[in-house]
Design goal:
Shape: globular
Low-confidence stretches: none
Oligomer: single chain
Number of helices: 12
Length: 353
């Protein structure tokens, strides 16, 4: 989907020899040349493809999270980023001024957390579909080599978009509509440790509100119980699982939430009983809407596992067909091995002639 970029800007955050963080401001927003559009499109694709995301909303001094602290008489400060965001959205500040204030805030947080990273702060205000977003990301740099117009080569610092770990996307449409859910801020959880995610949430003045992995696992477990309890034939059960997998995958790709009402209607249109009614009878607490976790969804269509030197994965539809499992002896029998595995085995046994 093509992005309609309203404004974007890059500021540099560097570390001097003494270890202090400094700022180098861009005096104006980026223009709309092809290079900028390409950068933002790549950044958006990389962000969307990140499998591990958290979902959050801004906090305030009155937030239920701080109920205990308030009862103890502690003073709860109001986060700075939401104030800056509101000032910009109400046109009290222009985009460049807003971005510079955010950069100063990032500088303070970096110093407070004793981070040792330099990079570039990228902010982009853009439209995707019917929603308006603000992307806030801290991009690392890498040393590269560029060919100059005179064909000489020089080292240069390049934005390493594919390695981004500090990024968040605010759905401004939902935020300004005062949405009741808590999912209008998404952020990359990444693999660099909990402290990194906490640092970026503190910088944005956010708190994580929903665990997408747990909600998705609840849905997967409920669907598995649903097809068994509803006496759906094997082929029909596989169709139900596949339909749930495809719907959740589509929502994930589009950055949208899984909505139980929509999923239930989709299954009923395909002739299945009501998943929502089954869930209510079972008493499982699945949120009415939640962001899907991509890795957890695979359990709907695949069996997979590894350990003790063995790794195995196969489509659930193969169980009882090409794959059989004996519960008593804990034995799996496979009829018809994959061609590349069969070739390796035949060569191992000297049967490749």
């Amino acid at each position: 989907m093509t992005l309609k970029v309203t404004a974007s800007i890059v500021h540099q955050v560097y570390q001097d020899p003494a270890g202090e963080f400094g700022l180098r401001f861009s005096p104006a927003a980026l223009n709309s040349e092809a290079e900028v559009a390409s950068l933002l499109d790549e950044m958006n694709q990389v962000y969307n493809a990140k499998p591990s995301k958290g979902y959050a909303s801004f906090v305030s001094a009155e937030d239920p999270l701080y109920e205990g602290a308030r009862a103890a008489g502690e003073e709860i400060p109001e986060p700075e980023f939401p104030k800056l965001l509101n000032q910009w959205l109400t046109e009290a500040d222009d985009f460049v001024e807003f971005s510079q204030q955010v950069s100063r805030l990032l500088q303070q947080e970096l110093s407070r957390y004793s981070f040792a990273e330099s990079g570039f702060l990228l902010l982009a205000d853009y439209q995707e579909g019917s929603d308006r977003f603000l992307l806030v990301s801290f991009l690392p740099v890498r040393e590269g080599v560029m060919v100059q117009p005179d064909l000489s080569v020089h080292k240069s610092a390049q934005l390493d978009v594919t390695k981004v770990q500090l990024a968040a996307r605010i759905n401004l449409t939902e935020f300004q509509a005062k949405a009741d859910d808590f999912y209008y801020v998404s952020f990359i959880k990444g693999k660099t440790g909990r402290k990194t995610a906490e640092f970026f949430l503190d910088f944005l003045g956010c708190a994580e509100r929903v665990n997408s992995k747990n909600s998705t696992k609840q849905l997967v477990d409920t669907v598995q119980a649903f097809v068994k309890a509803s006496d759906i034939p094997a082929d029909g059960a596989n169709d139900v699982r596949k339909s749930v997998f495809e719907y959740c995958g589509e929502q994930w790709q589009q950055g949208e939430q899984v909505r139980m009402d929509d999923l239930d209607q989709r299954l009923q249109d395909q002739g299945a009983p009501s998943l929502k009614e089954f869930n209510e009878r079972k008493g499982t607490e699945i949120p009415e809407s939640f962001p899907a976790d991509r890795s957890s969804l695979r359990q709907l269509v695949k069996f997979q596992g590894q350990g003790g030197g063995l790794s195995m994965a196969f489509d659930q539809g193969m169980l009882g067909q090409r794959v059989s499992y004996d519960v008593d002896t804990d034995t799996i029998t496979i009829k018809g091995t994959p061609p590349n595995l069969r070739d390796q085995l035949r060569r191992f046994y000297g049967m490749n002639d």
